[in-house]
Amino acid sequence: MEIRQIDIDFSKQDLRRLIVPLVIEQLLAITVGLFDSVMVSQVGEAAISAVSLVDTVNVLLVNAFAALATGGAAIAGQYLGRREPEKASHSGAQLLLFMGEVSLLITLLFYLGRGFVLGTVFGQVEPDVAAYANTYYLIVESSTPFLAVYSAGAALFRVMGNSKVSMWVSLWMNAINAAGNALLIFVFHMGVEGVAIPTLVSRLAAAAAMVVLLRRPGLPLRVERFTLHHDGYVVRNILRFGVPNGLESSMFQLGKILLLSTVSVLGTASVAANAIGNNLASFQCVAGNALGLAIVTVVSRCIGAGNYEKARFYTKKLIQSTYLYMAFFVAVTLFSLPLMLQLYNVSAEAEGYARQIVWMHGVMGILIWPLSFTLPQALRAAGDTRFTMAVSTGSMWTMRVGFGILLGKYLDFGVIGIWMAMFVDWLLRIAFFLPRFLGRKWEAMGLRD
Predict the structure, then answer these.
(1) Short-list 319, 127, 81, 92, CA closest to 215
(2) Could you count the other beta carbons within 10 Å of the beta carbon of residue 112?
(3) What does the alpha-carbon distance between residue 37 and residue 209 come to, in Å, rounded to a whole number?
(4) Model's pTM, two decimal places?
(5) Selection from 221, 377, 389 nearest residue 300 by Cα
(6) Could you read off the pLDDT of 48-106 as tens digits, one per residue?
(7) Please, are residues 289 and 365 in contact by the beta-carbon 8 Å criterion?
């Protein structure tokens, strides 16, 4: 069925109101993650290594749920672009139900597979690192259903263009987490439990807040009733939009987890340096991730309205903004790097590796990261999720994992070689995503009744 084109515009003020809270939200999440790492480092290098190993699994869950929710919420965004708020609200309720059910299943699987994750995936680690990792894993994985509900609620508010709500809930969640960490580690002198317990409590609070806020009157997408009934048409679209998005993110993180088995045999200094590099590299990508979420909101609305030229126009505009914002965050990271490395309190060897990693990532991030990761968000918002999944997964496993193991383990580049392979992965993604965006095929991927 041909979609009637609806005129749609986002003013500079609209985009600013959308983008600024998203940047703050991303910045909060990264900053609290850094504080977590710094605080747990007071327990010792074995503790920070253990938390970084398990957090790689947790990042898989965080990113997978965020991607799944973002893909599913794009359906609601397209309905809003069509000026059909009732269908948007209904799809929002179905997304919450779907996320809840999937998260319960994943939680069960993660507990049943605990031995495999800790014993096989992480490889041979030192006994004290293994003990810390086991304790942290048992506590944090119980927060998985709350994380899923929070992710769904945040994605729904973003497609409404109301990113302030997700920002304030994120602030609430991270404040609870940071305060709990400080209390349990510095006052009660707990080990990794002092980082794990506040994570559980903060995610529970965030999920509860989202459920309450989505019921407020006056929202363009109000989830008035939570249902246990499945709507086959909506669920199929959630599967079509969200599942490839979630699988792509999962494969991306799974590849990083498997690379940890290569990093772990390089020694504790390499594991610690890799963890520090991941944390600081995440800070460098704050703007890119935020602008990517903004693109999902804007493009899904434009596609729903049948206005593809506006979708292209706003994507290009937001990509330009991504380069500017990202250059700023990279500059801040590099300027503050000496101080940050002192706070981590690691060995001189780990500090040297971390410095190289952060500088490399910063330079390459400014040059090519936006086209590798922010641009394809426009394709995903339009529903072209199978293509982005195929490209991202193929590039991940061949370049980042395969080439990374070759450089890091067999050609003796060590942990630096693994990061070098990642940049090759970025270039390969651009070779596919840029021509796809410049073409027309993705315009035919939206909702059809």
Answers:
(1) 92
(2) 9
(3) 26
(4) 0.81
(5) 377
(6) 777 777 877 777 788 788 888 888 888 888 888 888 888 888 888 899 999 999 999 99
(7) no
Closest CA relative to residue 393, chosen from 279, 288, 245, 290: 245
Burial class (CB within 10 angstroms; exposed 0-12, middle 13-18, buried 19+) of 62: buried
Pick the closest to residue 414 from 402, 422, 405 (CA basis): 405
Instruction: Tell the residue number behind the tokens 């008035």, with chain if given.
Output: 224
Q: Which two tokens stand for residue 114?
A: 């605990």
Q: How many angstroms separate the CA atoms of 403 and 411, rounded?
A: 10
What is the predicted pLDDT for the residue at 5?
61
Report residue 360 CA to chain centroid gap.
21
Task: Tell me: pLDDT of 117 over 90.
Answer: no
**Cβ atoms within 10 Å, residue 227:** 12
Per-residue pLDDT of 323-338, as tens digits, reads 999 999 999 999 998 8
